[in-house]
């Protein structure tokens, strides 16, 4: 078996579009993966093929309709394996944000009246805004568990005082897209279930999905959302999972339609097909690290290899490579959630003393490094405001990135510190 992901890096990178060059500005290092991961070449090909089909999958008695229905069912089955979701429903929405809103809305309207709705200050506004909206509509208190600024996450100890029997809906973000730090969702859901077993629990897995394993069967949740464009697919759809009991709650449907179905209107068979491409890629990658022929085992092996490789890259980013100082040793660099945080997943948000974040992003662009600014606004103010920051630079990696790219980035950062 291949001992490390690094050994097959060229083969991995060959499977992605624009891996080392932007189609608009030429060669660059892509460290903007939290804004959208690179896209698999297979996804691009599949998207074009399915976009050309004029046929409708819904109830058509012809070979084209049957083929489209088969692609949808295959996509759902593949997603079940990827998520480890043996029951419940898989469905496609407009985006990961829209999926979260639908899950929260359905839970809020379907839960027993009264009680409260629980979230945390770590969450992305996708889930936080959805809970705020439907807490107001259903006249429930919206409780926010405070995250820890130093560690960039929120732990069970912070949740425990707010977990009471009258809890109706709880949302949990699995990984913060700003701090990059993960949350132990299994631990928190177990604690909620023990005290409030009927509570609907919805997990935002959007930032986590590309960095490691997902295990819905272990979480004991009722809803889960993924943005496929952040996990090597394309823009234009979100992937959702809902438990059987959440699916049984009243929801929007056409008159005479299935009351348990989350799907509305004509399905985009291409979205399901492109998610099958993602699952096939994880399985292909995993076969380099396990002899098992079981797809789930291959996905788990891929996730472990991805995590190991990303931890190696994060360590190099923090502590240096070759003769380039790491971020932890560059004068004036401040790293949100600390340099050596064991729960970090692919994201480093930082500031450089004496250089505004937008200027640093611009300078890095001139050096061929793509990063992104995060501002103290409705998207990131929950993280930046308590730290007294107006903005920061988000550096986000994925498993197809390399140590050579880390070196290029550190060379640029060391140069920026001297300006």
Automatic annotation (TrEMBL):
Root EC class: transferase
GO molecular function, one term: cysteine desulfurase activity
Position of the signal peptide: none
InterPro entries: Aminotrans_V_dom, PyrdxlP-dep_Trfase, PyrdxlP-dep_Trfase_major, PyrdxlP-dep_Trfase_small
The Aminotransferase class V domain, residue ranges: 29-409
PANTHER family linked: CYSTEINE DESULFURASE, CYSTEINE DESULFURASE 1, CHLOROPLASTIC
Protein name: Cysteine desulfurase
Native species: Roseobacter fucihabitans
Gene transcribed to yield this protein: csd_2
């Amino acid at each position: 078996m291949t001992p490390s992901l690094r050994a097959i890096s060229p083969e991995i990178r060959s499977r992605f579009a624009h891996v080392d060059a932007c189609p608009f500005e030429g060669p660059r290092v892509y460290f903007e993966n939290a804004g959208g991961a690179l896209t698999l070449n297979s996804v691009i090909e599949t998207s074009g093929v399915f976009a050309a089909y004029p046929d409708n999958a819904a109830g058509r008695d012809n070979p084209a309709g049957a083929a489209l229905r088969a692609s949808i069912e295959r996509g759902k089955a593949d997603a079940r394996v990827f998520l480890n979701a043996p029951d419940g429903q898989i469905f496609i929405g407009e985006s990961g944000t829209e999926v979260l809103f639908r899950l929260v809305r359905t839970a809020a309207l379907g839960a027993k009246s009264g009680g409260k709705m629980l979230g945390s200050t770590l969450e992305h506004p996708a889930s936080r805004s959805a809970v705020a909206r439907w807490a107001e509509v259903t006249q429930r208190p919206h409780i926010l568990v405070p995250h820890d600024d130093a560690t960039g996450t929120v732990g069970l100890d912070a949740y425990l005082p707010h977990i009471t029997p009258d809890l109706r809906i709880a949302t949990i973000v699995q990984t913060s897209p700003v701090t990059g730090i993960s949350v132990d969702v299994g631990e928190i859901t177990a604690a909620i279930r023990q005290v409030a077993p009927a509570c609907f629990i919805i997990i935002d897995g959007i930032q986590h999905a590309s960095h490691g394993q997902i295990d819905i069967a272990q979480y004991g949740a009722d809803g889960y959302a993924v943005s496929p464009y952040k996990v090597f697919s394309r823009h234009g759809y979100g992937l959702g999972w809902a438990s059987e009991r959440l699916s049984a709650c009243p929801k929007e449907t056409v008159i005479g339609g299935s009351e348990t179905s989350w799907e509305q209107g004509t399905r985009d068979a291409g979205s399901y097909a492109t998610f099958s491409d993602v699952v096939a890629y994880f399985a292909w990658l995993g076969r380099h690290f396990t002899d098992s022929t079981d797809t789930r085992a291959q996905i788990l092996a891929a996730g472990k290899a991805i995590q190991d490789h990303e931890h190696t890259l994060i360590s190099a980013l923090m502590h240096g490579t070759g003769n380039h100082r790491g971020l932890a040793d560059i004068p004036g660099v401040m790293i949100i959630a600390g340099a050596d945080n064991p729960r970090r997943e692919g994201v480093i948000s930082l500031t450089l003393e004496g250089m505004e974040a937008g200027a640093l992003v611009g300078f890095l662009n001139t050096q061929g490094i793509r990063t992104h600014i995060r501002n103290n606004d409705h998207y990131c103010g929950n993280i930046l405001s308590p730290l007294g920051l107006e903005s920061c630079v988000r550096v986000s990696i994925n498993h197809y990135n390399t140590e050579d790219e880390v070196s290029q980035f550190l060379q640029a950062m060391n140069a920026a510190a001297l300006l």
